[in-house]
Amino acid sequence: MRTAPRHRRMWTMHEPTIGPLLRELRESAGRSQGELAALLSDSADRPVTRNEVSRWEGETRLPTPYWQKHLAAALEVPVADLRGAVDRAKAKRRLQQREEDQPEGSDVQRREFLGAMAVAGLAASWPSITRWTPGRRLGGSDVKRLLSGTARLRRLDDFLGGADTYRLYAHVLKETQALVKGASCTSDTKRACTAVIAEQAQLAGWAAFDAGMHPEATAHYETSFEAAKEADHAALAGNALAFLAYQQVTFENPSVAMATASYETAEKHATPRVRALLLERMAWTFAVAGQPKETEHALATAAEVVHLTDDRPEPDWVFWVDEDEIKIMTGRCWTQLHRPLRAVPILEDVLSRYDDTHARDKAIYLTSLAHAYVDAREIEQAATVTQQAVELATGVGSVRPAERIQKVVHRLQPHRALSPVSSVLEAAANLPTAR
């Protein structure tokens, strides 16, 4: 591990926000607030006062990207350190605001507390999984530990959003890449470790996507695809393409060719649940592209293969794929195609069994049901369902529920004279986002 300069410390996973960090760096450099202000004024093309430095350290104001760059140069630290500390300050503010908005002991507070504890626990335990010495030879037991650790990390996504998990996932991916690059092993072990990298890159990509960090998500998915090809792992390569296709749909630019390629890449080697996952994602692309026949065929095939048995174990990254998952996607696809008579019964049935602890996902699925109700001209029912989605989305570190809710709200606006609609419009206006 690199040794830090004496005036700096090595930051842990429990890193400070920008105020305490600036104060520590400034004091370690032996400068007063006025001296730092003078140094910044000399290096920048605009003046800064001691009071402004004080505001930054007290976090009554956060330094802009312009001043982050000059502060990093003056304090001799990477600008990424300061950018990350600003992000943490923003997250702290959001959490404080949510706590103020929520009654003491509410479900949102409990979810955020348990989520923070889970992230902290896994962050603390991960180094023990990947710790190694230069020249160490990796073997099958190391691959098992990496897979086990990755599975534990994956379970966080059941309850937390990408804004909560991305930094941890990206950190673990970087650690594993360094581990595999620096160690010696057989070709089979190298291939297995590279497949783990493909899995972890998909985790990081999904978290970035969920947090609205689309360039980072794309980069991780492409890393995953290349690693999967290097590992000769067709199923993971297909899943990486499926993630990229799903992201394209988000930009309302569905790539049917990419979605089809994702399934064709993996089909011959995939286990039943992997096939079902890729088929349902392909169906979603068909639905957004306005192709009902192709959508129905992909969904029907997914519903069949999810029940098939296979001698091979299913990979952990499809642990959540089951009959209800296919039904949810079926309802969402028929909503997308404006077929409410087909969508509503399916979504009502599945969501009646869907636990509120999966707050992000349930909020998103409820917006599909709300859209279907609007299409069916059941406006008050649509407003009631949207209100439930708003309540679940509060406190979730994901941009996606709020984005989906706003699209429903736009369709409800003409009916604001109705009491349930006016109530949900007011509630949605106060919905915090993840970034």
From TrEMBL:
Task: Spell out the CDD domains in the cross-references.
Answer: HTH_XRE
What molecular function does GO assign, one term? Answer: DNA binding
List each copy of the HTH cro/C1-type domain by range.
22-82
The record ties this protein, via PROSITE patterns, to:
HTH_CROC1 (PS50943)
According to UniProt, the name of this protein is Helix-turn-helix transcriptional regulator
Instruction: Please tell me the species this chain comes from.
Output: Lentzea tibetensis
